[in-house]
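re: ur question from yesterday

yeah so i grabbed the chain u mentioned. its 375 aa long if i counted rite. heres the sequnce exactly as i have it in my notes:
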Amino acid sequence: MFNLSNNLFNLSKDPYFRSLDSTYYTSQHFNDKYKRHGRPTGKSDIELSVFHVNIQSLNSKLRAFCTFLSSIDIKFDILILSEVWTTNLDFHCNVLDGYAFYYDLPVNTNVGGVGVFVRKSILCRPRDDLKLNTKGLKDIKLENLWFEVIKNRHKYIIGCIYRHPNRSVEVFNNLLECNLCKISKLKVPCIVAGDLNIDFLKHEVNKDIQNYLNNLVIYHFLPTILLPTRITTKSATVLDHIYYFEGNNKIDVKLSSGNIFCDLSDHLPNFLLLLNRTKKDNLSSRPLIRLFNAKNKLKFQTCLSLVDWQTSLYNISDVNECYNNFTSLLMQNYENCFPLIRLSRRASKDKKWVSTGIKKSSLKKDKLYKKMAYI
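ran it thru and got these structure tokens back, copy pasting raw so excuse formatting
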């Protein structure tokens, strides 16, 4: 596991690799950490949320799947299911309120297939031009769906793949590379998820898996699931993958991903959250200043005029005491009338070399130019 992370860090200079937050969660742990991000009221700071699980027959696991979703406080934008199988899928289109259901089923078998639930509040358009075409290719079998979604006026490409086991990784890698290249040229942010049946932990001993991982990094598709997703008494493998391609995404997001402990199947559910970074105001970069405006100056004059100078100064014979009283009263009123305040955000952005005189001259120049333009 650590070798996988370290090798990814060495392969790519992408800062997302080092800032990636990925671990295991219980449902309660997940809710405690992310509930505040997906606020039911007000604006959520989750830019996009994607969930994936190899469900091994949606028909038989439907009740357990709905129960699991009800235990999670976040309502995911995209729910991707691998191995939905073919039984009664037409009857499951409306099982999740507020979601539209899409699926791609295997041919000549009941096992396999992918299904995707997309929130109806998100604009969604199928991208059949990106669908991996296995026609005429031997030693490969997979189902896949691709969409273009728009949330908060930001466009994303979503891909979901189920690759059947015991098939050529090399053939699949060559097929997927065409899509990675096409999407990277489009520069549209992309998330790809699914059960690929390729164990990332074997990347050091299997040349095909190593080439597959190198291919992802070359096209800047970041693997976000680095911990085993299928754990048995004899093995631990990373077969379920979620990749993120930043593209031209101008939003500053933090990636948070992981696996959730759940007994839906022998694969753990995985998720990826794109969290908007909250830019806190750095108060230390905004110095304390005093405002010497007309209002404060008038207040200062008024305060000084109300001081009983006869008692404070003229009735005292000791010159040192008299001086101390004078400076004390003066500074006290000065502090009250010209208090220290934090420099405004707008003013803190000003260039230090742009003086007040230059600002006034610029404003006057603009007014003169505007006047000339209308002559």
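noticed a couple things. The chain has two domains: 2-276, 283-373. also The two ends are 73 Å apart (CA to CA).
anyway ttyl
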